[in-house]
Amino acid sequence: MIQEKRELIDAIRNRFAHVESCPFQGPRIFFENAGGALTLKSVGETSAHFATIPDNQGRANPAGQALVDVITKAKADLAVFMNASSGQFIVGESGTELLFRMIRTACVNVAKGSKIIGSTIEHPASRSAANRWAEVMGLEYVSVPHDNETGTVSAEAYAEKMTPDVSVATILHGSPVTGMGMDVAAIVKEIRKVSPDCFIIVDGIQHAAHGQIDLDAYDVDGYAISPYKVFSRHGYGVAWLSDRLSVLPHEQLMGAPEKVWEFGTRDPGSYATMSDVVSYFEWLGGQVSDTQDRRGKIEAAGRAIHEYEKHLTTSLIHGTGNLPGLSNMDHVEIIAGADNPAREGVVSISVKGKSSVDVVEILNAQGIRTHSRKADHFSGNVLKPLGLDDCIRISMCHYNTEHEIAQLLTALNELER
């Protein structure tokens, strides 16, 4: 396990930029990973390299052909990372934009009067797209309620709302508010029992950094991630589309091949940085396992990340050393419970008698970076049913340390005084 190898933690942290300090603030602890993870140093180097290349991919010159090879390699790397034996990967403006495109395309190609199903736990990226195109195309939107106590939506909850005329479905893989992961495979199974040909689109943006994506096991039609949340950089999104979603009529240039979804000349550097991300997961998997198989290394990395982040969240919730954990602090309320097996590196809390914005500012003044979520169009669907106006999101990743947890607990404990 990662926490048993101090030298491995040091090696991990050495691969990321700005681990211990912010170029604008100075020394700080980074617990804002759900808002955007730290960036691999290799990603910065790769981005700078490709930003200076003037050639377009595909041109009849060595540079143009080399860029095609870079893109082809990145798509192959992504297929290993996400375990996709079919379908295609595309790059777009952002994860949100790609979710809109996939959901829109599905909605405009199914029968009018049919239904689209989604859940109340979802980020507005998918819920907004689903509601918008349901209205435009004359579909009925079916809303599956999530469980306020667990911060999740279950396969059983989807099953209760399913009917044979559901033609499109959306699923959230990980919540950026509660921090909980959903059982995508189980939800898909319930959907396909009732509507086998339903187009299923998954928002994997929050989940991706935890390294456990298995598209072949999910039986879905679309999956979107935001690379800046999985150790790459801002400025683009990545989506996987199944073969049957790929060939649905969609916006494209006249006369273009039917599976082409990308518009204009893409940035080869964005693709290349995803190869950097996949290489990092492979390296980590090689540190925590003896397997020589690429996919096996990625799976090993995902398991190690999950276990280590569980260790970090357990230390935060139940304490470390002589420091009391959040569950021992009377002035702190933990959203979705203290011992929730669905948790993926995020603990969201509220502090009695203090606004979350104020708490975040107090922590930030001590060099501890967290984030406040308000009951607005981004998070109101989760916070309002709990009677909360806001919350503090503490989001960890596998490069964080137990020592950093201890510093955060010390600061939070002092808020009661």
TrEMBL record:
GO terms for molecular function: lyase activity. The keyword Chaperone does not apply. Transmembrane segments: none annotated. Keywords: Lyase, Pyridoxal phosphate. Residues 29-247, 323-408 form the Aminotransferase class V domain. This is Selenocysteine lyase/Cysteine desulfurase. The lineage of its organism: Bacteria, Pseudomonadati, Pseudomonadota, Alphaproteobacteria, Rhodobacterales.
